[in-house]
Amino acid sequence: xxxxxxxxxxxxxxxxxxxxxxxxxxxxxxxxxxxxxxxxxxxxxxxxxxxxxxxxxxxxxxxxxxxxxxxxxxxxxxxxxxxxxxxxxxxxxxxxxxxxxxxxxxxxxxxxxxxxxxxxxxxxxxxxxxxxxxxxxxxxxxxxxxxxxxxxxxxxxxxxxxxxxxxxxxxxxxxxxxxxxxxxxxxxxxxxxxxxxxxxxxxxxxxxxxxxxxxxxxxxxxxxxxxxxxxxxxxxxxxxxxxxxxxxxxxxxxxxxxxxxxxxxxxxxxxxxxxxxxxxxxxxxxxxxxxxxxxxxxxxxxxxxxxxxxxxxxxxxxxxxxxxxxxxxxxxxxxxxxxxxxxxxxxxxxxxxxxxxxxxxxxxxxxxxxxxxxxxxxxxxxxxxxxxxxxxxxxxxxxxxxxxxxxxxxxxxxxxxxxx
Length: 420
Ligand SMILES: Nc1ncnc2c1ncn2[C@@H]1O[C@H](COP(=O)(O)O)[C@@H](O)[C@H]1OP(=O)(O)O
Ligand SMILES: [Mg+2]
Ligand SMILES: [Mg+2]
Ligand SMILES: [Mg+2]
Hints:
Helix content: 25-40%
Keywords: Hydrolase, Magnesium, Metal-binding
Largest sheet: 7 strands, mixed
Number of domains: 3
Low-confidence stretches: 1-67, 104-110
CATH superfamily of the largest domain: Fructose-1,6-Bisphosphatase, subunit A, domain 1
InterPro entries: DPNP, Inositol_monoP_metal-BS, Inositol_monoP_superfamily, Inositol_monophosphatase-like, Inositol_monophosphatase_CS
CATH class of the largest domain: Alpha Beta
Shape: globular
GO molecular function: 3'(2'),5'-bisphosphate nucleotidase activity; metal ion binding
Cofactor: Mg(2+)
Order of helices and strands: HHHHHEEHEHHEHEEHEEEEHEHEEHEEEH
Mean pLDDT: 83
Bound molecules: adenosine-2'-5'-diphosphate, magnesium ion
Number of strands: 16
Number of helices: 14
């Protein structure tokens, strides 16, 4: 194969869903991303459209050329520990949640004591367990508001919570962290990420609105290596261990708290947040949209419910939408609770990498496919933002061509309606 390593690398970075282990690369990509010409209205990425055959042969080359520098086992186990500890902190805060815990940030989104505490804790665990001169963390929060005089009491509460959680865990025999230590831990999340080296990616509480309502939220932590997501963990403290659509409410309420974890090439596992009941999970295998259900944001401000409704109708989905907050949707999808996730953000909203990186690998390692609304693979290598065409869609490999067709048709309809 004459293709040079750098060309293959650049190509595969752009077009290869990172759920594929190198060995599966060429086979699956040729089946998933370059759909047959019968789906003519599906917009594929332009280079792939021009030459699917070349794309597949290049990807075959990449399958044999690329190898991962490590299996990321240690990183996965540390990520699980960090997310589990952060989940404990968040659960304690949600238990006592008072509206006065909500601070106003410049972007007006609610930020809670648990957001900061979770970020400080994850940053602390990662740095302590995986010391490295090149440690890099891309995280949602920063300490700007917390350093204000008016936030002194809040900072004290966060510091106390972080120390209590560390003490409860018992594995770190250290003097208590100071408020300055906590601020510094939060601010280690200021990295810009990018295509080179390793970067941890953290949403300390994804789905803040769900958290405040007492509903679903997630602690979402992922590792990028050379721009690819290689590890992902989702702590979902309120997600039932049984499928979300289980009719027996007692079963749903009796055991909540899921930890999803995925490592590139090693599949996705789910266990309870207390560490028991580990099981390998897989996305729904259904090929029939009529028997499938779809997830979308609880918040209409986060995703266009009307458009999703139209897409679901085109697919023939019978069930009503399942609306829950946060990347818990990716977790639920990875174990087959539903077959579709539709996230079509409102015009002007830019997705962030921490809102999708962990969920992306949890679903793709469970056999799912995640693309933007034009069928492009997601590219986590461009810094803090994730630039996508119109929206993010998720399903299994069999249903993706159908879903892309429906999404494209619904978008065209809404565009022509808007231009009238
Ligand atoms: N206007 C918005 N449109 C889309 N997503 C948003 C918007 N504002 C915040 N988000 C982020 O969307 C995610 C929640 O999506 P969902 O609707 O799936 O629960 C969260 O990551 C939330 O950030 P945050 O982490 O601060 O909660
Ligand atoms: Mg936020
Ligand atoms: Mg988020
Ligand atoms: Mg958040």
